[in-house]
Amino acid sequence: MSSPITNPLRVGLRQERVIPPQCLVIFGASGDLTHRKLVPSLFELYKQRRLPSEFALLGCARRPWSDHDFRQKMAASLSDKIKESPIEWDEFCKGLFYEPVNITHREDLIKLGQRLEEIDRLRATHSNRTFYLSISPEFYGIACRSLAEANLLKDPKRSRVVIEKPFGRDYRSAQALNKLVQNYCQESQVFRIDHYLGKETVQNILVLRFANTIFEPIWNRNYISSIQITAAETVGVEERAGYYESSGALRDMVQNHLTQMLSITAMEPPGHFDPEAIRNEKAKVLQAARIADEIEPWKCCIRGQYGRGGNKEEPLLGYREESGVSPSSTTETYVAIKLFIDNWRWQGVPFYIRTGKRLPKRVSEVVLTFREAPVHLFDAAGGSPTSNQLILRIQPDEGAVFRFDVKSPGSGMRSRPVEMDFSYEQSFGEPSDEGYVRLLADAMLGDPTLFTRSDEVEAAWRLYTPLLELIEDKPWQLPIHQYESRTWGPAAADVLLARDELLWRRP
Ligand code: BG6
Known about the structure:
The protein has about 500 residues and is α/β, with parallel strands linked by helices. Helix 1 packs across helix 13, helix 6 runs parallel beside helix 7 and helix 10 crosses helix 11. It has 15 helices and 18 strands. It binds 6-O-phosphono-beta-D-glucopyranose.
């Protein structure tokens, strides 16, 4: 018997890697993401001793703050974490700097260049720079141009740009933005972030599929009858109405996070585990994906919007009553879509994806339902026979469950479903890192595996174009269904599956 092939190209995801001397520059440093996610993640990396001692963080925004102001603001928002590790914070804090920058002002960019050279001398950061664009998307192109004109992107090995979502609003604008960004940067310098790819359990789908022999032979149309992908949230729109009103669930969650889960679940095994091989397969599967009914796409998509709900103790406002939301808003806070993937592996297998705000539970999962046994030899304890299911729990309670039938105890031969459960926490004893921890480290390492390549982003937008066009041109064909807060979305979404004689899994 031949032994397994090990590939010499063991780069990217496989190695324990050391971040080189580095200055991380955050544009939009006064914004929410910086103190909620980025600085806490960098502090986490620091505490795990994964940041080099030659590290600096330079915050940039228009506000005229000093280094001291910036350090204080960050300390105020991380106060709980600092209480646990005050000594580490004092040390980490010495590497935080701030420079007021208006990205459209040439003279500010010249000053930024000088400040970076100063930081290089002070912290020995060797001109390795990661520029993180946590700014309004309309400035992404301008920011790349300004950085290039200030000569800050000229060495692709030492400088890179991380771009937050949303990357475009539709296929055309994503294409235009890619062109613009690529005028100033090489593709290898661009890191389009999707924080779902930073989640341990999303990466685990790759390991589960490609490190075990038992799954791949049955991971296809011959054995799998349908796949459901869910990302349910309990929160409403919170303070983000300004952004969300012009985005909605389709742009905010589906085009990126759910589509990434879809592509990792459905992709072909890469020839080797290097970044481009993986991204090639992800792009290919998205290029083969389509809305289930291309002629009448409205039949395959349900949009919903949360109404009031909750209880006496905790009454919840409807979406249209939230601050900053138009009382006649038609922005969807829930969406369910049926897709097909036209390739040999998946032809005819429906993929149902759904996401919503103000649902009863926060849960993200991928559910693979296997075909029924061809002959039912036994009576099922629950009345009707159940199908095997593999449930990949992305969050919370990260893990996986396999559901299969066993003999029900007692006389007779009745079958009954049971579950075999793997939990990350029980097996490894520690919760996994926040996605940004992993992704910030990877960006500074220059490892693009878990970032979205230009063709992937475009393919993901193209996939939803028929729906985006309908919403734009014929909104009455994709009406908004109201659903009560803390329920599982509009009844119409159940009908979408009932037509195929299926039910959504209640997680
Ligand atoms: C963000 C969306 O990208 O993802 C938010 O903009 C959403 O609307 C969030 O709440 C969900 O992320 P997570 O990691 O909590 O599932």
